[in-house]
Amino acid sequence: MKYLVIILTIIIGGVVNIHAQADTSSLKDQLQKLSSEIQAVQYSSDSLKMKMEQLVSKDETLQRSVNNVANINSLLQTKIDSLSQKVEKSELDIVGLDQQLNSQKEALSGEISETRETTNQSISALDDALSKNTLYWIIAVLAVGLLSILAFLFLRRKVTDNQSSINESLANTRKELEQEAIRLDEKLIGVMETQLKVIQEERKAQPESQQEEQDHSLALKVADEIVRIEKNISRMDEGTKGLKQLSKAVGRIRDNFAANGYEMVDMVGKPFEEGLKASVTFRSDPDMEGEPPKITRIIKPQVNYKGVMIQQAQIEVSQFE
User: How many whole angstroms separate alpha carbon 79 and alpha carbon 33?
Assistant: First the structure.
């Protein structure tokens, strides 16, 4: 608008001058001059508009960049918080170990101090006897040496006994935990068997038209628990009490699982093929040089119902890198 007012002012002024002078030739010259000025002003206006559009586009690009940086900063902060929690937990564990080591160190230091005092007393007595008889001195030296050896052996044996006691306590605790886990898994299997039987009875009572649309949530949970229990079994010692009964219970629930139309695809130990419908995590294994990638762990199993996949597998693949 400002440019238009200026242009109109110039035009009106020019017209007034033209009438005042009444010179036709001068009027033409002034009109040409005004036309050139109008074109120049129009060119300046277009140039300003283009610059304004460029500035708006740059502002939008900068805003998007700022939003991306803010999202990345939020993700990094979340990871930093998680790592901080892990570091705090590790520090607490280290403090506990330091306290145990300091306790044992103090106990051993006390025993060593007592042994040292005993040895010093023996040496003092030996010094007193040196002036009386060389033989007594030799015997005392031998006695002190023998006492030192016996004290060293005693302390070494005590440390070994303490370590053996700790290892035995840990082994017993681990065995108790494994047996408790076996009992809990057996109870869980019993509950899952009951649920599968109930589902089987309900499906028998349903018309065939309704059997196509089924709720598979319980079956998928059963499949995940089977994988977890079998993984725990593989880590336990074969002589663990109750392990055989648990293995048989897993076999029974697998049979019930299959009787309800479900199938768990066994993938462990098989070569990995590109295009496999699964969520894959790769792990480097230096012992697999020259071997093809292989599936070494099942996180979630692939489950089929009547030949149709209803759950995609989550697997871990080992390969040489």
Answer: 70
Q: How many CB atoms lie within 10 A of CB 84?
A: 10
Q: Would the pLDDT of 28 be above 80?
A: no
Main-chain phi, psi angles of 260, to 5 degrees: -90, 10
Give the number of other Cβ atoms within 10 Å of residue 299's Cβ. 15
Higher pLDDT, 240 or 213: 240
Distance CA 43, CA 57 (A): 21
d(CA 196, CA 254) in angstroms, rounded, equals 11
Laid out side by side, the sheet with 294-300 consists of: 278-284, 313-319, 294-300
**33 closest CA partner among 16, 49, 61, 14:** 14
What residues does each domain of the chain span? Answer: 2-124, 264-321
Q: How many residues does the chain have?
A: 321
303 beta partners: 264, 311
The CATH class for the domain spanning 264-321 reads: mainly beta
For residue 200, give every residue at least 6 positions away whose Cβ sits within 8 Å of its Cβ, in sequence order, or none: 256, 259, 260
Longest CA–CA separation in the chain, Å: 154
What is the mean pLDDT of the segment spanning 16-43? 70
Q: Supply 313's token pair.
A: 């597998």
Tell me which residue of 220, 230, 228, 221 sits closest to 251, measured CA to CA. 230
pTM of the predicted model as reported, rounded to 2 decimal places: 0.45
Conformational region of residue 131, where left means phi above 0, alpha means psi within -120 to 50, and beta covers everything else: alpha
Q: pLDDT tens digits, residue range 263-299?
A: 888 888 899 888 888 899 999 988 888 889 999 999 9
